[in-house]
Amino acid sequence: MSTKIEWTEATWNPIIGCSKISPGCDNCYAEKMAGRLSNIVNTAHYLIVVEQNVSAPFVHRGLQIWNGKTHFVESQLDKPLKRKKPTMYFVCSMGDLFHESVPFEWIDKVMAVIAQTPQHTFQILTKRADRMNKYFERSEYDFGYKITPNIWLGVTVENQEQADKRIPILLEIPAAIRFVSIEPMLGQIYLTDFENPFYNYIDKTENINSIDWVICGGETGTKARPMHPDWVRSLRDQCKETNTPLFFKSWGEYAPFTHEKGFEMVKVGKKKSGNLIDGKQYRDFPK
């Protein structure tokens, strides 16, 4: 399926559904989209993974939220097999491939399709790095499903706490490309601070203990939280120092405005906030 996500070309959702596990999940865009899709005849299978938010204020009780279940969408599994043109797929944009309720047997089926389509690139992003690591350990040694060269593995981190939890696990897993998505960015994140126990995140001599790509973006939606420009500048500088490609998606709903007293974040909407950091665009991909 085509997508408006700027850092990929298409989405592929053979597995849908999720649940919230950290602050970055609070205003989940996929949850809102799943709720809308559940009301459409052709995508009624989303009814399996959402439920009515009965605890919300009365005016919002018609909104659907994740119910913690996941669902294997058999009709979507062979989509990449039918496309010969090399395509970059974001896998499970409407869920988490490594959600605790997803059986490894489902993931095996997804990996089998990936192995059969080496012309495509598959970007797999998760907040459950520990389960991703367990899957690939089990797959490689027990079942022979190794990580093929067309797989990019990534983790989402919204603040330093989640970076410290998830990135070290990601770096234990061999992959053609390892990437970090910092969206929404809810705090300062250091990837290269030598005082940090994970200072060796980025090692360009070999593809060991390395982050190969960083995505960053502000939050969107009515409940969006602003992103401090100094957090973004620091991340940009870290990527420059380590020659790590940076894809800055956008400032989200808020844009920084400077004035004689300093600066403030003003809610202007995603279209107006733009994607420039100090007047320059950063939309790089790993080689």
The residue fraction in helices comes out at: 10-25%
Percentage beta strand: 15-25%
Q: What is the CATH T-level topology?
A: pyruvate-formate lyase- activating enzyme
- The arrangement of helices and strands along the chain is EEHEEEEHEHEHEEHEEEHEE
Described by the principal axes of the CA atoms, the overall outline is: globular
- At the first level of CATH, what is the class? Alpha Beta
CATH architecture: Alpha-Beta Horseshoe
Poorly predicted runs: 194-208
Strand segment count: 15
Tally of contiguous helical segments: 6
**What is the CA-based Rg, rounded?**
19 Å
The profile of the biggest β sheet is: 7 strands, parallel
What's the rounded overall pLDDT mean?
A: 90
Query: In terms of quaternary structure, what is this?
Result: single chain
Distance between the termini: 24 Å
Derived from helix and strand composition plus strand pairing, the structural class reads alpha/beta
Total discrete domains = 1
Instruction: Please give the order of strands in the largest beta sheet.
Output: 1-6-7-8-9-10-11
